[in-house]
Design brief:
CATH architecture of the largest domain in chain A: Sandwich
Structural class of chain A: alpha+beta
Largest sheet of chain A: 5 strands, mixed
CATH topology of chain B: Cytochrome C Oxidase, Chain A
Number of strands of chain B: 0
CATH superfamily of the largest domain in chain A: Ctag/Cox11
CATH architecture of chain B: Up-down Bundle
Largest sheet of chain B: none
Order of helices and strands of chain A: HEEEEEEEEEH
Oligomer: heterodimer
Helix content of chain B: 55-70%
Distance between the termini of chain B: 7 Å
Shape of chain B: globular
Number of helices of chain A: 2
CATH class of the largest domain in chain A: Mainly Beta
Radius of gyration of chain A: 24 Å
Distance between the termini of chain A: 81 Å
Largest interface: A-B, 42 and 40 residues
Number of helices of chain B: 18
Number of domains of chain A: 2
Number of domains of chain B: 1
Order of helices and strands of chain B: HHHHHHHHHHHHHHHHHH
Strand content of chain A: 35-45%
Shape of chain A: flat
CATH class of chain B: Mainly Alpha
CATH topology of the largest domain in chain A: Ctag/Cox11 (Pfam 04442)
Chain lengths: 191, 531
């Protein structure tokens, strides 16, 4: 330490620091997919799977427990419809398969396309909620003035922790016509 | 410690004549003292500007109901007040102190990268010009709070958001350049014999702060970029309709935001660790533990961000993790407070203004730290979240913490900067007015917060009226007390006062006191020997 000359080249330190800046900037963006993956694994943000689950035929219905599942619905900003579940809540055993209908009414004179996004609270429950059929898996074309009844079939994994006795499944129904175009509506609905 | 001053005196005289004059001296300067002075004046101006915005807020909240400004303007005031105080007042003040003091403290002739130093200062006024001019756009300036949560800053904001984003980018670049400069200076420019563990704590704390800046300012740049593309270029980082997640914004923002709060307090720790030993006339107790405590706080600051988000419905394990990590920070912080108190123990203390501010810092910062521990407790945070209790907490650590430490530093080093002793009577008046008014201003906020008054609203329930009136009175007293400070600084800058000796404080330690007062334009052209 008795030299007065620089201990290392200025430019090598600067290069390393600038590299760190670039890496941290990239890291900020890398956190986006990392967060998504993390949420998928832990149920952190309460989002449920976008693909249909297949119920295991040997699944045991756990009749010792009754779980209350509440349904909440909301329309996306500016979306022109009425959207509600047929029932506000149901009580069910883990392992039991249930169907709940959701009703959406397009209140405009135009063909629109809707997309529902699910969210579960508390988020942990989303890991044990398995949908075998859901309107949220696909975009929903809604003809002018159409009222559609959309089913959602699901069961709860019997491994559901004992601490969860009640949870809420909520759907937000967005209007995505501007993004996808209303042409899709002319194709008739599958039901 | 050093005999260099006499040796290099001829060199000084030569240089003195080459100092450019007029506006060009300041525009093109690469001198660390000039740039430090620019930073300090700039931050003072921003402090007064951000303070006047706070007074608009307090004026509106003096009585329940709407009287002075409309809610949208109120929201712009809270937003601008936060952004200006964080990025315009506190951070540039610390960078200014770093510019002035780090080369003097480590025996270096200047900062390592003087031209970049000029840049990192001069882009700042433009950043704030852009930010402030956005208030004159149709629809007004940013009104989404300094935390610019999505979707407030994306779906629901006006076009001034673009200016806000660019201003943030420039401020970030300035901070990053400043941090690079500090790191290279400290690593390469130390005088012979100045080993890392001999560096003054102000240098140490800034060294660690600079690494924090390098680590998190780019993340902030990324977040504001995402806000910009979400708003204007159709991406959906934070938009649930497009597959994004608004809660992700909060994770990214606080990943930057929590280290940021330590960026605003670690240099304070360094300042207080210089001042208390000087006026207690005892060496700092536990120097090495101070260094390690600072480093541990910096490390832990990356593991606590989600304590700002307990109410977003995190799973229990995550809440517990962030709660315990947050409480763990109290340990190194407690080490520091303990060391300061122990330094004073049986010391021969005198109470000049820098010491008064340092003592107020220790007491009031600790109050802010304790309310921080209360906020760290997840279940009770559900009650405290987004209330005036939080406002009280972070103003205790930022105003009576960071800002008080900056004032302490200003009084402590003013004789070195200006060459004259500041007016001790006015300085003490400033201190006592500030001390009393800051507590009238912020202490009652704890109570309305616990009683449930939410932050960021231009109006409130009637039962909070009396306390808000008291708070507003405290706010105006505190605001106008700062004019005394301005007066003291102007007097010193105009050399009105008793000429200061090289070392005006009897117990002060460090190389900065080996050079004459005012510090010559060029110092340590030949490095001092540090034993």
């Amino acid at each position: 330490m008795s030299k007065q000359q620089p201990k290392a080249d200025n430019s090598s330190i600067i290069t390393k620091l600038l590299a760190s800046v670039v890496i941290m900037f990239a890291f900020g963006f890398a956190l986006v997919p990392l967060y998504e993956k993390f949420c998928e694994m832990t149920g952190f943000n309460g989002r449920t799977s976008n693909t249909a689950a297949t119920a295991d035929g040997n699944m045991q219905v756990d009749e010792s427990r009754i779980i209350t599942v509440e349904f909440a619905t909301r329309t996306g900003r500016g979306a022109p419809w009425e959207f509600k579940p047929e029932v506000r809540s149901i009580r069910m055993h883990p392992g039991e398969i249930k169907v709940v209908n959701f009703i959406v009414e397009n209140r405009t004179g135009q063909n629109r396309v809707a997309q529902a996004l699910p969210s579960v609270s508390p988020g942990e429950a989303s890991l044990y909620l398995n949908k075998t059929e859901c309107f949220c898996f696909e975009q929903q074309p809604l003809a002018a003035g159409e009222t559609a009844i959309m089913p959602m079939q699901f069961y709860l994994d019997p491994d559901l922790p004992d601490s969860i006795r009640r949870f809420t499944l909520s759907y937000v129904m967005y209007d995505i016509t501007d993004q996808v175009g209303s042409g899709a509506v002319t194709a008739s609905r599958s039901e | 410690m050093s005999t260099v001053v006499a040796d290099s005196h001829d060199a000084h005289d030569e240089h003195h004549d080459h100092k450019p004059t007029g506006i060009k001296r300041w525009l093109f300067t690469t001198n660390h003292k000039d740039i430090g002075t620019l930073y300090l004046w700039f931050s003072f101006a921003m402090f007064l500007l951000g303070g006047s915005m706070a007074l608009v807020i307090r004026m509106e909240l003096f009585q329940p109901g709407m009287q002075v400004v409309d809610p949208h303007f109120f929201n712009q005031m809270t937003t601008m007040h936060g952004v200006i105080m964080v990025f315009g007042a506190v951070m540039p003040a610390f960078t200014g102190l770093a510019n002035w003091m780090i080369p003097l403290m480590i025996g270096a002739p200047d900062m390592a990268l003087p031209r970049m130093n000029n840049w990192s200062f001069w882009i700042l006024p433009f950043a704030f010009l852009i930010l402030l001019s956005s208030m004159f756009m149709p629809g007004g300036g940013p009104a989404f709070g300094w935390t610019f949560y999505a979707p407030l800053s994306t779906t629901y904001s006006t076009d001034s958001t673009a200016l806000f984003v660019f201003a943030m980018h420039i401020m970030g670049m300035s901070s990053i350049m400043g941090a690079i400069n500090v790191i290279v200076t400290i690593m390469n420019m130390r005088a012979p014999g100045m080993t890392y563990m001999k560096m003054p704590l102000f240098v140490w704390t800034w060294f660690i702060t600079a690494f924090l800046l390098i680590a998190v300012m780019p993340v902030l740049a990324g977040v504001v970029t995402m806000v910009l593309t979400d708003k204007y270029f159709g991406t959906s980082f934070f938009d649930a309709a497009g597959g994004g997640d608004p809660v992700l914004f909060q994770h990214l923002f606080w990943f930057f935001g929590h280290p940021e709060v330590y960026i605003m307090i670690l240099p304070s720790f360094g300042i207080i660790s210089a001042i208390i030993p000087a006026f207690a006339r005892k060496p700092l107790f536990g120097y090495a533990s101070m260094v390690y405590a600072t480093a541990s706080i910096a490390g832990l600051s990356f593991l606590v961000w989600a304590h700002h988000m307990f109410t977003t419905g995190m799973p229990t394990f995550a809440s517990l993790f962030f709660m315990y990590m947050t409480m763990l920070i109290a340990v190194p912080t407690g080490v520091k407070v303990f060391n300061w108190v122990t330094t004073m123990w049986k010391g021969a203390m005198t109470f000049e203004t820098p010491m008064l501010f340092a003592l107020a810092f220790v007491v009031l910062f600790t109050i802010g730290g304790l309310s921080g521990i209360m906020l760290a407790i997840t279940p009770v945070d559900y009650q405290y979240h987004d209330t005036y209790f939080v406002v009280a907490h972070f103003h205790y650590v930022l105003v009576s913490g960071a800002v008080f430490s900056i004032m302490a530093a200003a009084y402590y080093w003013l004789p070195k900067w200006s060459g004259v002793m500041y007016d001790e009577f006015l300085a003490k008046l400033h201190f006592w007015c500030s001390l009393v008014s800051v507590n009238i201003l912020f202490f009652p906020m704890h109570f309305v917060g616990l009683a449930g008054m939410p932050r960021r609203y231009p109006d409130y329930a009637l039962q909070f009226a009396d306390i808000n009136a008291i708070v507003s009175v405290g706010g105006f007293l505190f605001g106008f007390s700062q004019l005394i400070f301005l007066w003291v600084v102007i007097k010193a800058a105009r050399k009105q006062g008793v000429p200061a000796p090289a070392k005006p404080w009897e117990g002060a330690e460090g190389l900065e006191w080996e050079v004459p007062s005012p510090a010559p334009y060029h110092t340590f052209d030949t490095p001092p020997k540090v034993s």
